[in-house]
Structure formats: structure tokens, C-alpha cells
């Protein structure tokens, strides 16, 4: 059988309800929609953690965050753990990164004073770097400067709006476009780099991991996209009460309102993101969709290249995200907390033609980001390491439902801040108490905090998560059931690299138990 190629793509901060083929009637995602028709789409796919670094560590190691413990951007990763790049390299591939993995190395190897710890944007071990896209954007900025652009400053300063743009009457100031054209955007530039890489060796099976920045903020799009969507046509955010009422719903929500600044989302922001008004929210939502459409277009360019090269049919394409985006729902912004908007993400898998998989299927069973590494390795007929907590989705690709498949998803969110200590001070908690675990099934979501009151939402009758039922006497049985389920899950998925092995008269014996 022909050795398959792999194109593993992430769109950063892309939430599940922003894909045309799965129900969003306002967004234009023609290339992603085509992949949905040619592969298998997982409708209830969830990341096991946010933000970027921890979520990428999770799907690249196949491990729950409670086991790999790289739980914040900048938290070092245990050097003893393997990952998908190291494993496919054993299978004869040269796994190549285009973008970023946001991996912080283990200080026990490098020493705590190593320059690697000046940033959290290291590369996961095992990857060859085709083109890195760090937050300082230096490689892309050098490209822009060479094309004659004036660079206003380092890093994200390039995302200030075009100073020559004249704002039309009635348009929100956030509708202004970027100072760079679409053909020069970081999305187009990174796609070009990968396309150049595809052209260099047409005979060797490849493994490419492409990490698009968009639709991650700053929320500004090139002039060719900036007015693609009408803010008036965007869905209204979920806001069950006033900001004051929401702030008093739970201490964690009050913390998030205080911790998220506007300037994390656009360059001229001032104050707290919670205070953004309806007009700004609608415009940001329109820009967010424009950035997804731009990423879709550039993914289409890569797919067209694969087809021109005759390699598309034997390429496994996996498209997903690291986490979602609140977009003003519950007055929150970014990837944060416990709401589905931050953790429910898309997953599309287009298998090679030779695998003879039924196309166009949409799976409603719960899947998690830990499943990606086992799935890709299983598809390539490579061993799945014992450290993996996830399970291969290959049976779903064959039209089967695995026996005893999970009935719930779980995620961890850690809100400690080792640098500023702000959450610890505001909530009067120790760092080890600044975390939560979620048990989310088809009926209920239970949020357990280490040292704060729990939350319970009825996901069938209140899918927008507007009413906390944790203290309701009628739901105490549900709370108890959820606590028991959460505890049982944690007990089943303690770190298990070696636990099913044993010394014996025949030497080391054992196996991996699902």
C-alpha cells in the first residue's frame, strides 16, 4: 500500500460554530466545506485545555493536561514524554512545522538560566522547522519590509489599522482594514512557505504540520476581506444578565472580567474587554468571520497544489483548532474558563482515497483533542505509545462506533499566574487552587473548582449555560452523579505510561489498557 502523506492543520482560536458545512449560514468556508464532504467531521469535538501552548501539547502528546502538566503558556514540558513528531519520525517521516507549537522546554535539561526561557514559543521536539511564526513576527516583518511596507514597530504593531483608510459614515472604527494586503498577510505568507516546501521533494511521503495564526487576534483583516461580512448580520452574543449580574454569578467570572484587556484583541483597545459595547462586538464578530474565510482561502491554495502534484488523493488531511473564542458570549473574550465557546472546536479528517472510507459522514459522538495523535498514528499503521490517553478515531472513519466509547468530555483550565500572581491575590487562593475541571455530557455540564463553589448547567434545556443549578435542591443528585463521574474519570486516567507493565518470570510483560 502507498505510504500516506499527512497534512495536519490548525486554525488558532476557531470555534465549532463557525463552519459553513455544519450549520453557520453566514460564513464562507468553501474549501473547508469541501473537506467535510470528502471526509469525516466530528460535531462534538472538544479541546482538553486552553490556551494555545497547553492545548497544542495535549494533541501533540495525546495526553490529558492533568498528566503532561504543561498547563499554561510557558509551563515547561517534561522531556521524558514522546509526541507525534518523534513517533512519525520513527516511521520514516520528516515531520515539518510551519507556524508554531508554543512549547517551553524542560529546565532540568537546559538549566533555569537558559535563553530559551525568555519566550514560551519553543518548538516541540522532533519537528524540523520549515518556517516558524513567533509572536514577534520577525520573519514575516522582514518579508513585509523587503516589499516596501513601513513597519510601525516590533511584534503586533503591524496590526494597527491602515492610517490612510477613510472610515465611511456609520461604520465602526474597528472595521478599518490592516495596512498590508491579503497577498502579504501572515496567513498567505505562511501558506506560500508550505507550498514552496511541497514543491521541493515530490517523491517522498510528507508529514506537514501547519499552524495558521488566524482567526487569533488582533482582530483586523486585510482590505480585501475587512467588509466581507455585515456586522448587522452577525449572531447576537449570549448575555443572560447584565455585566453586574454576571460578575456576581461566580468569583471566577469576576476574575475573568478583570483579567481580560481590550488591547489583547485589537491594537487601539483601552480598558477591560467586558466593557465592549454591542457595536464593537458585532464588528469584531464580522472581522472574526473574515479571518476564517481568509484562512479557508489559503488552505484552498495548498489543497490545489496537492491536486496539481497528484498527491491529494493519498494525503490524510486533519483540520482542527487549539481552542475556541468567546466572542463576547457571557461578556467574555478569548479562550478562557469553562463555557463551550472556548472548548468546543471543529475537527475534519479527510482520509487517503486508498483507505476506502465513506465520505461526508458527520459523527455526533464525543471526541477530544487527545484523540488526534492516536488517530494519525493508527492511520499510518504506527504504534501508539503507552503514554497516550486518547483513543484512535479510525473506527469512526470506517463507519463503526467503538464499543464502550466515551459518553462525556473533560477539560482542565488553570488560571494561576506565576508572573503577576493577580488571580491568587484577587481570589485569596494559592496557585495550586487556581484551577477547574469540567465534566460535560449530553445532558449536564459540571464545573469543579479546587477551592471555589461548583457550577452546574442543564445542557439540554439551557444550552447557552445561563442558569447555575449547582445549589438548587432539586439537582443535588445530579451534582453527586457528576462528581462521581469526574472522580472516576480522573482515576481511570492517572498517568499510565508504566502501570500496565510488570516484572515477571518471563521478564517485562504487560500491555496498554483502554
Automatic annotation (TrEMBL):
Organism: Sneathiella litorea
Pfam families named among the record's database cross-references: Sulfatase
InterPro entries, A to Z: Alkaline_phosphatase_core_sf, Sulfatase_N
Entry GO terms, CC: cytoplasm
CDD domains on file: PMH
Keywords: Hydrolase, Metal-binding, Transferase
Protein name, UniProt field: Sulfatase-like hydrolase/transferase
GO terms assigned for molecular function: metal ion binding; sulfuric ester hydrolase activity; transferase activity
Family annotation (SUPFAM superfamilies): Alkaline phosphatase-like
Record bears the keyword Transferase: yes
Record-annotated membrane-spanning stretches: none
Domain Sulfatase N-terminal: 5-378
Amino acid at each position: 500500500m502507498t505510504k500516506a502523506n499527512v497534512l495536519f492543520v490548525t486554525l488558532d482560536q476557531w470555534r465549532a460554530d463557525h463552519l459553513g458545512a455544519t450549520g453557520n449560514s453566514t460564513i464562507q468556508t468553501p474549501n473547508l466545506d469541501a473537506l467535510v464532504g470528502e471526509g469525516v467531521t466530528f460535531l462534538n469535538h472538544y479541546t482538553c485545555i486552553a490556551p494555545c501552548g497547553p492545548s497544542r501539547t495535549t494533541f501533540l502528546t495525546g495526553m490529558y493536561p492533568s498528566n503532561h502538566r504543561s498547563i499554561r503558556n510557558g509551563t515547561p514540558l517534561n522531556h521524558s514524554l514522546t509526541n507525534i513528531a518523534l513517533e512519525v519520525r520513527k516511521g520514516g517521516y520528516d515531520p515539518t512545522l510551519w507556524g508554531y507549537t508554543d512549547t517551553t522546554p524542560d529546565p532540568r535539561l537546559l538549566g533555569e538560566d537558559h535563553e530559551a526561557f525568555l519566550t514560551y514559543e519553543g518548538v516541540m521536539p522532533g519537528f524540523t522547522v520549515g518556517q516558524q511564526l513567533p509572536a514577534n513576527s520577525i520573519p514575516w516583518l522582514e518579508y513585509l519590509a523587503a516589499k516596501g511596507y513601513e513597519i510601525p514597530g516590533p511584534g503586533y504593531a503591524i496590526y494597527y489599522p491602515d492610517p490612510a483608510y477613510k472610515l465611511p459614515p456609520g461604520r465602526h472604527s474597528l472595521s478599518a482594514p490592516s495596512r498590508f494586503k491579503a497577498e502579504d498577510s501572515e496567513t498567505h505568507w505562511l501558506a506560500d512557505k508550505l507550498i514552496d516546501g511541497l514543491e521541493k521533494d515530490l517523491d517522498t511521503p510528507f508529514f506537514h504540520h501547519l499552524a495558521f495564526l488566524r482567526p487569533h487576534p488582533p482582530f483586523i483583516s486585510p482590505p480585501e476581506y475587512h467588509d466581507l461580512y455585515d456586522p448587522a448580520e452577525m449572531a447576537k452574543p449570549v448575555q443572560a444578565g447584565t455585566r453586574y449580574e454576571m460578575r456576581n454569578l461566580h468569583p471566577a467570572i469576576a476574575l475573568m472580567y478583570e483579567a481580560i484587556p481590550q488591547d489583547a484583541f485589537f491594537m487601539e483597545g483601552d480598558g477591560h474587554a467586558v466593557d465592549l459595547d454591542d457595536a464593537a462586538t458585532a464588528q469584531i464578530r464580522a472581522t472574526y468571520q473574515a479571518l476564517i474565510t481568509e484562512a479557508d482561502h489559503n488552505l484552498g491554495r495548498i489543497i490545489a497544489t496537492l491536486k496539481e502534484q497528484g498527491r491529494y488523493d493519498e494525503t490524510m488531511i486533519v483540520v482542527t483548532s487549539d481552542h475556541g473564542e468567546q466572542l463576547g458570549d457571557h461578556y467574555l473574550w478569548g479562550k478562557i474558563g469553562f463555557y463551550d465557546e472556548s472548548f468546543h472546536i471543529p475537527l475534519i479528517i479527510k482520509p487517503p482515497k486508498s483507505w476506502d472510507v465513506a465520505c461526508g459522514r458527520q459523527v455526533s459522538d464525543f471526541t477530544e483533542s487527545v484523540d488526534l495523535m492516536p488517530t494519525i498514528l493508527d492511520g499510518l499503521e504506527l504504534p501508539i505509545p503507552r503514554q497516550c490517553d486518547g483513543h484512535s478515531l479510525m473506527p469512526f472513519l470506517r463507519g463503526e462506533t467503538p464499543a464502550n466509547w466515551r459518553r462525556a468530555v473533560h477539560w482542565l483550565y488553570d488560571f494561576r499566574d506565576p508572573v503577576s500572581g493577580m488571580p491568587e491575590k484577587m481570589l485569596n487562593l494559592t496557585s495550586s487552587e487556581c484551577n477547574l475541571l469540567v465534566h460535560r455530557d449530553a445532558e449536564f455540564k459540571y464545573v469543579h473548582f479546587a477551592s471555589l463553589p461548583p457550577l452546574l448547567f442543564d445542557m439540554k434545556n439551557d444550552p447557552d449555560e445561563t442558569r447555575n443549578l449547582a445549589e438548587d435542591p432539586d439537582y443535588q443528585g445530579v451534582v453527586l452523579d457528576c462528581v462521581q463521574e469526574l472522580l472516576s474519570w480522573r482515576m481511570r486516567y492517572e498517568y499510565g505510561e508504566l502501570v500496565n507493565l510488570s516484572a515477571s518470570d518471563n521478564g517485562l510483560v504487560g500491555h496498554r489498557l483502554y
